[in-house]
Specification:
By secondary structure, the protein is of the alpha+beta class. The protein folds into 2 domains: 1-35; 39-201, Mog1/PsbP, alpha/beta/alpha sandwich (Protein Transport Mog1p, Chain A). Helices cover 31% and strands 35% of the residues. The protein has helices at residues 2-36, 117-132, 187-197; strands at residues 39-42, 47-51, 54-59, 64-67, 73-76, 81-84, 107-115, 141-146, 149-158, 161-171, 174-179, 199-201. Strands 1, 5, 6, 7, 8, 9, 10 and 11 form an 8-stranded antiparallel sheet that branches. Strands 2-3-4-12 form a 4-stranded antiparallel sheet. A hairpin with a 2-residue loop joins strand 10 (161-171) and strand 11. The chain crosses the membrane at residues 12-30.
Length: 203
């Protein structure tokens, strides 16, 4: 009886050790992966300028400008900027009402993120792999041009339709980040691409 009890204790102890190794190893992998994509707080200093009834969003420090489509709404969130189509409505706190997406509302969020050398290298390696042809293309990754600069694009799809787009452009110690949010109307995909064509980064 004592022998069986000891065996059970040994088995339980071994299981606990294995679980500790699995959890510890998983944490180590996650920590290293996050280190590859370490992002520091986003920059601010955005200005909304109106010239001849045309809006322009500018960040002089980062030498970034984007021409806003006619009648689109601009929201300055201090460390990011949101551009929204005319159908968009907001709640009393300035938040985006999800219900307007049913009416075809589109948007694009813009952030300029300070980062570290390892993150820039991560994107540079990713771009090289995609240019050569990579299995990552099956996951929606591709390379695109933003103001004649090479960026990484990822498209998230469901049932064959695009549901979200992200574009990340590494320059120096910054990553210029553009995202569509949830896409319900496929017209928003074209609007997203049109706005990318209106971006200028004079670096």
């Amino acid at each position: 009886m004592n022998f069986k009890f000891k065996n059970k204790k040994i088995i339980i102890f071994a299981v606990v050790i294995v679980l500790i190794l699995i959890i510890g190893g998983g944490f180590f992998w996650w920590k290293n992966r996050k280190g590859e994509e370490k992002i520091l707080p986003p920059v601010s200093d955005y200005e909304i300028i109106e010239i001849s009834e045309r809006k322009i969003v500018e960040n002089k420090k980062e030498k970034f400008t984007v021409k806003v489509p006619d009648d689109w709404i601009v929201k300055d969130y201090v460390t990011s900027v949101g551009l929204f189509s005319p159908e968009t409505e907001f709640d009393e706190n300035g938040g985006f009402l999800d219900s307007v997406r049913e009416r075809g509302a589109c948007g694009i969020g813009i952030e300029i993120l300070e980062t570290e050398k390892t993150t820039i290298e991560y994107f540079e390696n990713l771009i090289r792999a995609l240019q050569k042809g990579s299995e990552l293309e099956q996951d929606g990754y591709s390379v695109v041009s933003v103001d004649n600069k090479t960026a990484v694009r990822r498209i998230y799809k469901k049932d064959g339709e695009t549901k979200s787009i992200e574009v990340e452009l590494p320059i120096g110690d910054k990553v210029y980040y553009f995202e569509s949010g949830l896409i319900v109307n496929q017209q928003c995909v074209q609007e997203f691409d049109k706005i990318l064509e209106q971006i200028s980064i004079n670096i």
